Amino acid sequence: QKEVEQNSGPLSVPEGAIASLNCTYSDRGSQSFFWYRQYSGKSPELIMFIYSNGDKEDGRFTAQLNKASQYVSLLIRDSQPSDSATYLCAVSPPSGGSYIPTFGRGTSLIVHP
Amino acid sequence: DAGVIQSPRHEVTEMGQEVTLRCKPISGHNSLFWYRQTMMRGLELLIYFNNNVPIDDSGMPEDRFSAKMPNASFSTLKIQPSEPRDSAVYFCASSRISGTAQETQYFGPGTRLLVL
């Protein structure tokens, strides 16, 4: 059974600090990795995706992928109170040209002023 | 673009009643997903359609749950009869197949279901 594990948190960081969110997965054949942000009472919103080992940067967000160790992380630089949300990690294997992602249960992030 | 549209946004019903949730995917998207989210189990995929055809319904919890997609712009998720343990937020998401890969999923606002 495919599993995606995240620390539920909450992770509390001061404004301006770097927030580091981690995710591990069990299916070694996984190829696509996604980070979604979900504000309380709202729907998940994709913020980053990564396919290759290494780092991918987009503004204040950096996704890091290490397939050998089967983990993917999300770094948020210069954290802002508006970043306070639950961050969901999603992982999907290749499957005949389409994918069905498995979601982790999310990490709650609190950025305090 | 209006995004994924779901209705109703909130539903309160009594145990044993039939519940129908509706979804309109983004125009041009050919994949549609139904998810259920609870505190205990997180986000769970219930069923997945490609080009209006159900591809994987292994996440549908019981025969009480059924889903249809009669055309590219409309899908329903039905629970009959409903039970208190069905209380959750139900999300619909859509995406587009591009070549051999799925593109990003876009989620609707969700339907918050409470079964008393």
Describe this structure in words.
The complex is a heterodimer of chains A (113) and B (116). Chain A is mainly beta and 113 residues long. Chain A has no helices and eleven strands. In chain A, strands 2, 4, 5, 9, 10 and 11 form a six-stranded mixed sheet that branches. Chain A has a five-stranded antiparallel sheet with strand order 1-3-8-7-6, with no helix packed on it. In chain A, β7 (61-66) and β8 form a beta hairpin. Chain A is globular and about 40 Å long. The termini of chain A are far apart. The mean pLDDT of chain A is 91. Helices cover 0% and strands 57% of the residues of chain B. Chain B has no helices and 13 strands. The mean pLDDT of chain B is 92. The A-B interface holds A 34, 42-46, 49, 88, 92, 97-106 and B 31, 41-45, 48, 50, 55-56, 91, 97, 99-102, 104-110.
Number of helices of chain B: 0
The multimeric state of the shown protein is heterodimer
SSE ordering of chain B: EEEEEEEEEEEEE
Low-confidence stretches of chain A: none
The pLDDT mean of chain A sits at: 91
Biggest sheet of chain A, open or closed, and with what strands and sense? Answer: 6 strands, mixed
Q: How many extended strands of chain B?
A: 13
End-to-end distance of chain A: 41 Å
Structural class of chain A: mainly beta
| Gross geometry of chain B | globular
Count of β-strands of chain A: 11
Beta-strand residue fraction of chain B: over 45%
List segments of chain B where confidence is low: pLDDT < 50 over at least 5 consecutive residues.
Answer: none
The backbone outline of chain A, from C-alpha atoms, is: globular
Largest sheet of chain B: 7 strands, mixed
